[in-house]
Amino acid sequence: MNRPNFVVLTYLIAALSIASVTMLLPVENVIAQANTTDTNTTGAQESGAQFSTNLTGELAFPPVVTNATGTGEFTVVGDGNTMKYTIDAKNIDKVTDVFVAASSGGRYVDLVQLRSAVNEGVSGPISGTLVEGNFTSADFTGRLNVDQMSDLLKLIIDGNAYIRVQTTDEPLGKIVGKITPNLPS
Predict the structure, then answer these.
(1) What are the distances in angstroms from CA 115 to CA 33, 100, 112?
(2) Domain range for residue 114?
(3) Cα gap 158→179, rounded to integer Å
(4) Is residue 70 part of a domain?
(5) CATH, residue 168
(6) What's the pTM?
């Protein structure tokens, strides 16, 4: 008898938890929750739809041995068509680009560019905030028919959305992390 794969089991538990939290409602209703939100100190409205990632070299393609790490926090804000993000990194240098990407195994397809070396230059050493801001569906590349925030949320819930941080020495990605829903405690 085969033992269940830990990753698959964890994903199933997370998916069931998400389903119970959203009361088995479609992804569009996760966005709709943004309309019933509290106002934070900056005046932006935040919804209950929050996501995070841990960045390492393990999910890079090909995998990278590195001391660089990072984290990311994401929140659907306003009317549900805007995603607020903060990406922090440690022990990383010469960052060129940061992308929200999709993958169902293997290569990554970039969906949103959060940092551009063309516009911002190559970074110096970073141990802190790498990038932060907001993006909307207008910032999507249109690849994989991801045109609406609900399309990205479906990718996240399905376990196919990632953050990819590129550097001059690792142009395909130095650190990468899967974006996952924050489950209520």
Answers:
(1) 28, 10, 9
(2) 6-181
(3) 10
(4) yes
(5) 2.60.40
(6) 0.76
Distance CA 97, CA 100 (A): 10
Q: How far apart are CA 185 and CA 183, in angstroms?
A: 6
Mean pLDDT of 148-156: 94
Q: What is the spatial distance between Cα 106 and Cα 62, in angstroms, rounded to a whole number? A: 9
- The residue behind tokens 């390492």 is 56
Enumerate the β-bridge partners of residue 92. 126
Does residue 68 fall inside a structural domain?
A: yes
Whether 1 is covered by a domain: the verdict is no
CA dist., res. 113 & res. 135, Å (int) = 9
Is 177 domain-assigned? Answer: yes
CA angle 13, 18, 19 (to 5 degrees): 95
| Total count of domains within the chain | 1
* pLDDT tens digits for range 4-63: 443 333 433 444 444 433 333 344 444 444 443 443 434 445 555 799 999 999 999 899
